[in-house]
Amino acid sequence: MAAHSDHVKHHNRICVPGEHLGLESEYHTGPGTYRRNGSIYASLAGHLCSRTEVETELPALTVLQQEIQITVPRQKSLVTCKVVSITSKFCRCDILSVESVPLTETFRGMIRKEDIRATEKDKVEVYKSFRPGDIVLARVLSLGDAQSYLLTTAENELGVVLAKSEAGVPMVPTSWCEMTCPKTHDKQLRKVAKVQPHYIAYAS
Amino acid sequence: MAGLELLSDEGFRLDGRRPSELRKIRLRLGVFDQADGSAYIEQGNTKALATVYGPHEVLGGKGKPLHDKVIINCQYSMATFSTNERKNRPQGDRKSTEMSLHLQRTFEATIQTHLYPRSQIDIFVQILQADGGNYCACVNAATLAIINAGIPMKDYVCACSSGYVNNTPLTDVSYLEESQGGPVVTVAMLPKSEQIALFKMDNRLHVDHLEQVLEVASKGCKDMYAVMNAAVKEHVSRMAKSMECS
Amino acid sequence: MAAEFKTAQPVEYYKQFLKEEVRPDGRELGEIRSTILNVGSISTAHGSALVKLGNTTVVCGIKGEFASPTVEEPKKGYLVPNVDLPPLCSAQFKPGPPSIQAQVTSQLVADTLLSSNLLNYEDLCIKEGNMVWVLYCDMMCLDYDGNIIDACLIALLAALRNVRLPVVTIDEDTGLAELSSTEDRSLNIVNQFAATTFSVFDDSILLVDPTVEEEDLATGLMTVIVTQDGRLCNIHKPGGTPLSTDQIQDCIGRAQTRAKEICSLIDDTLDSIER
């Protein structure tokens, strides 16, 4: 995303909710703004900047905040979660952070058995993929039922990034479906993520 | 008028204000660390505190998550030591429940609720010391806390009350003026778009006077807006400076 | 990325810091957060105080009311402490009846008041066997960042010393109480006390004045309450990691130093107000 926003212009101006920023014929609405009656207004307090992504299009007005933007998991966002419990059909987890922004309060998520991996879905067993306490990288599939977000790990890059053995030490992945404890050399089955450095930094 | 002379012959009120004068306002944003947004406001001797949490998951109990917008949950509470007579219940009595509901309705009208479906935003307001205009102080504090939390809203909400004594409308009535039994009009307004989000009236007022009183109240809201706006801008630029330093 | 590491593995995150003998907020293991005290800010209360212990903020307001004394002790008034942890102060408290933690803290404060000989309760007598003052001490947390007990007790002490009760005269004929609007009096605080809370991390390391994160990770907590002159008033250690007698002795020693600091802080604040 950052690569496209090469035409960011900072208007040295602080705006507050309800402030008139410009006309709809001159700008698009970006984060922190909304439109009403053909005009664009601010909905947050912060610094104003306009950003042109494509030359032919109108620049989008955005209000930038100093303080961390609040995040909620959205569809397709990458989340880090901790496994809370497993059953034969699904695994429940707490979403800890969204797109590497830590949440102050966790959201509940659920990974169904058929969403654990992309191939051989019928052979998947939940207990061979996750155990309670594992840290899992997943993607939000949909907003799910009223109780929780539906998550998926059916990508090579997604799955368990951190798991502890019974000896209490972090295990080392040995294949895409197995992890080994460096202390006891005990082998355990997991749906291991192929760790991508730009996805995650603490796994090493 | 019973007993007290609310307006002197020279046109001054009991606390020395002119009829159209607001009480002294002191306010601060971002006073607390745990909350996502917080603000403290003093309007004369009325002291109120607001904190905002969320958006977060809808947690059991009352509300069911809405598929198209966020649930706004407000709780108004008065400290037991905030009034002259000790309050036994800080919240849950009818008066506070009514206040909570008023606040909730007011903010549902201004927060861009469609941005966070299936979530919940909690707004807690606490009166630490009450001296009239509690609802107004709460609305103003909550607005600042929401801005501090970075929750998108259409406009500020500013609230102000006004009374009517001796053919003169009074702005920002204190407890003493409120309790004399005269009419009190409370208005919560979106000052930029000049829309009224909440209008509440206690006691009787002749229709002919309504316009006058309403005008004074909305003038009070705009004065309030000027003060709040200055504080928000100052807060934003201070935050920007501290970011540059680090 | 440090933030991610912290959310995923808080214990390891803390261990990394504690190995270097510092805490993530930059404090040393035995260091207490800065304490700020403000007295008498709420004019509707008979006495009030606001304490900030780092980020933890507690306000205490005291209201006096008339009540009938008990038959056994017709000359004694009483104090009713109450600790409130409203949902306002932290996301971990939900609306509803008082949480267990709030009730436990209230009870601890009540027990400490009872055993500490803080003030002469006969001072609160208005008419023997008929009417006494009951002081409702409401402590409300506004921002919860751990170590609520210490903050509550500082607020309570400071508010009690700030109390101004109107002088009451009882009309002999009608038996009605009359409040003087000009004359008031303060309470005679005999014996001040202060609490110091320790948390045990990973069954081994003692941290003083824990933040909310440290409390959540703690394997044990202990609060030591000592009086100004160094006598032990109460120890509250609700289970958790067992500690040796030596460790407890060490904690008591540290609590004694802390109690002196707090009492002089309260003295200084009250002095600066009166001037």
TrEMBL record, chain A:
Q: Which organism is it from?
A: Strongylocentrotus purpuratus
Q: Exosome complex component CSL4 C-terminal domain spans which residues?
A: 103-143
Q: Name one GO molecular function term.
A: RNA binding
- Subcellular localization: Nucleus, Nucleolus
Tell me the ranges covered by the Exosome complex component N-terminal domain, including all copies.
14-48
User: Pfam families in the record, alphabetically?
Assistant: ECR1_N, EXOSC1
Q: Name one GO biological process term.
A: RNA processing
Which CDD domains does the annotation name?
S1_CSL4
The name this protein goes by in its record: Exosome complex component CSL4
Q: Do you know which InterPro entries this protein is assigned to?
A: Csl4, EXOSC1_C, Exosome_cplx_N_dom, NA-bd_OB-fold
- Principal localization reads nucleus
Automatic annotation (TrEMBL), chain B:
Q: Which UniProt keywords apply?
A: Acetylation, Cytoplasm, Nucleus, RNA-binding, rRNA processing
What Pfam families would the database entry show? RNase_PH, RNase_PH_C
Q: Which GO terms describe its biological process?
A: nuclear mRNA surveillance; poly(A)-dependent snoRNA 3'-end processing; rRNA catabolic process; rRNA processing; U4 snRNA 3'-end processing
Database matches in SUPFAM superfamilies: Ribonuclease PH domain 2-like, Ribosomal protein S5 domain 2-like
Give the Exoribonuclease phosphorolytic domain ranges: 21-152, 155-220
| One GO cellular component, as annotated | nuclear exosome (RNase complex)
Residues of the signal peptide? none
Q: Which GO terms describe its molecular function?
A: RNA binding
Localization per record? Cytoplasm; Nucleus, Nucleolus; Nucleus, Nucleoplasm
Family named by the database record: Belongs to the RNase PH family.
Quote the subunit structure annotation. Component of the RNA exosome core complex (Exo-9), composed of EXOSC1, EXOSC2, EXOSC3, EXOSC4, EXOSC5, EXOSC6, EXOSC7, EXOSC8 and EXOSC9; within the complex interacts with EXOSC2, EXOSC7 and EXOSC9. The catalytically inactive RNA exosome core complex (Exo-9) associates with the catalytic subunit EXOSC10/RRP6. Exo-9 may associate with DIS3 to form the nucleolar exosome complex, or DIS3L to form the cytoplasmic exosome complex.
Tell me what this protein is called. Answer: Exosome complex component RRP41
Native species of this protein?
Strongylocentrotus purpuratus
UniProtKB/TrEMBL annotation, chain C:
Cross-referenced SUPFAM superfamilies: Ribonuclease PH domain 2-like (SSF55666), Ribosomal protein S5 domain 2-like (SSF54211)
Mind listing the GO molecular function terms for this protein?
mRNA 3'-UTR AU-rich region binding
Q: Which UniProt keywords apply?
A: Cytoplasm, Exosome, Nucleus, RNA-binding, rRNA processing
- An annotated GO BP: U1 snRNA 3'-end processing
Q: Which domain of life is it from?
A: Eukaryota
Q: Which InterPro entries match?
A: ExoRNase_PH_dom1, ExoRNase_PH_dom2, ExoRNase_PH_dom2_sf, Exosome_comp_Rrp42_subfam, PNPase/RNase_PH_dom_sf, Ribosomal_Su5_D2-typ_SF, Rrp43
Q: Where is the Exoribonuclease phosphorolytic domain?
A: 31-166, 193-256
Q: Which GO terms describe its cellular component?
A: cytoplasmic exosome (RNase complex); nuclear exosome (RNase complex); nucleolus
Q: Where in the cell is it found?
A: Cytoplasm; Nucleus, Nucleolus
Family stated for the protein in its record: Belongs to the RNase PH family.
Q: What is this protein called?
A: Ribosomal RNA-processing protein 43
